[in-house]
Structures are given as structure tokens and as C-alpha cells.
Amino acid sequence: MLVSLGAGLAFGLLVAIALTVVDLYLAGHGRRPLSAPLLDVPPLGIHLSLADVLFLGAAVFGAAITWRRTAGGGA
């Protein structure tokens, strides 16, 4: 389980760095940045951008793939 957690965090970190570079490029060229609000529900305290959604999805994906490829996901 710790291997899956570590893999998810590491993959999430790599994706966060890549998203930062892409976001800087887009913002520097006058395009809509990835950090612009995508899902905004103030009463619930939810404020997610496309970059947030991609980061969270990548971290869960990395952890799930590692979990399946190790003994934690069954045979």
C-alpha cells in the first residue's frame, strides 16, 4: 500500500510540474490559463481548476496502476 501511495504522489508531482510549465506558456501567450476556475461551488467551498482536476486524476491513476501491478490488487 505504501508503494502505491508513493507512486501516486510521485506521479502527481511530475504532472504538477508539467502542468505548471504548460500553464506558464499559455498565460504568457495570452491564452486562458489552466488555473482558471472550472468547478466553482462557493457554498460547499469547492474551487477547482482544470489543472487541479488533472493533478488529482493523475495521482489517483498512478496509485491505482501501481496497486494493480503489485500484490495489493489481487492476482
Structure overview:
- The protein has 75 residues and is an alpha+beta fold.
- It contains 2 helices and 2 strands, in the order H-E-E-H.
- The chain has one domain.
- A two-stranded antiparallel ribbon has the order 1-2.
- Helix 1 packs antiparallel against helix 2.
- It is flat and about 45 Å long.
- It starts with a helix and ends in a 6-residue tail after the last helix.
Beta-strand residue fraction = 5-15%
Helix/strand-derived category reads alpha+beta
Residues in helix, %: 55-70%
Q: Summarize model confidence as the mean pLDDT.
A: 89
Number of folding domains?
1
What's the β-strand tally?
2
Termini Cα gap: 15 Å
Strand adjacency order, main sheet: 1-2
Uncertain residue segments: none
- Backbone shape: flat
Give a short account of the largest sheet. Answer: 2 strands, antiparallel
What is the count of DSSP helices, taking H or I runs of 4+ residues? 2
Cα-atom radius of gyration: 15 Å
The run of helices and strands is: HEEH
Q: Gist?
A:
This protein is an alpha+beta fold. It contains 2 helices and 2 strands, in the order H-E-E-H.
Task: Provide keyphrases for this structure.
flat; two-stranded antiparallel ribbon; 63% helix; 75 residues; alpha+beta
Any chance you could write out the topology, listing elements then pairs?
Elements: H1 2-28, E1 37-41, E2 46-49, H2 50-69
Antiparallel strand pairs: 1-2
